[in-house]
Every structure is written in C-alpha cells, then in structure tokens.
Design goal:
It contains 8 helices and no strands. It has helices at 4-8, 15-27, 31-44, 49-61, 65-78, 83-95, 99-111, 116-129. The longest helix has 14 residues, at 31-44. The N and C termini lie far apart (45 Å).
Amino acid sequence: MFMADEAATPEPTTADEFFARGLKSAQLGQPDAAARDFEEAAWLDPDNATIQFNLGTAYLSIGFFEQAVVNLDRAVELNPDSSDALGNRAVARTALFQDELAEEDIRRAIELGAPPDGIHAVVEYVKQRRRPAE
C-alpha cells in the first residue's frame, strides 16, 4: 500500500538525488540500500570525494572490505586531508590483515585530527574479530 508522499516521490536521477537517498538509508541503518544509491551517485559523479567516502563506508559496514578499500582509496585520492576516509580505510585494511598499510593510515589520520583513542579502539576491536581466510 502506497502512502501519498511515497507515491509522489520520484525516483532519483541525479548524483545528488541518489546521494541524498543513500544518506537517508544509511541513517536508517540500511547500509545495503545506501551502498546501491551511493554506487549510482558514484557512476554519475565519480570525482566526488564525499560520495566515494560514503560508498566506501557503506561497503565497510556490510563487510565488503576489499571494495571499501577501493572506494576509500578514491576518496583519499580526491581529498588527501580526509582523516575520516583514512580512518575508515585503516579499519578495512585491518579486517584484510593489511596491518602495515592500516598503521600508515592511522598515523596520517591522527596527524589530520582523528582522535587517537577512537581509531585505536576500533582497530583493536576489528583485530579481535577478524578471521583468516579458510
């Protein structure tokens, strides 16, 4: 059953519209839906660091660590001063057992203002829960 405002909401067509819908999905705790919309936004605007960051973060949230690194690499390439992108990439790299690369990201993120206690706590949490590939 459609609610009146659902029927009136047109499907997104622009990068900004897909991004906005993706943010709403992320805020509602729906990272799969967010990733789909951020992916559409990234196709339409591939050089947008904010879109790449959010896409990488959505993939990180659903455990697609390799893809998260790809998008977070792009976010860092587009905005090298993003401590958030570096921190999230460190988490994804930690999950992938890329500890040396993660440490470099952590160092850079902290230099750019990321809270050391927070980033170290998240990375330690991931280290405790990661499992080697079988």
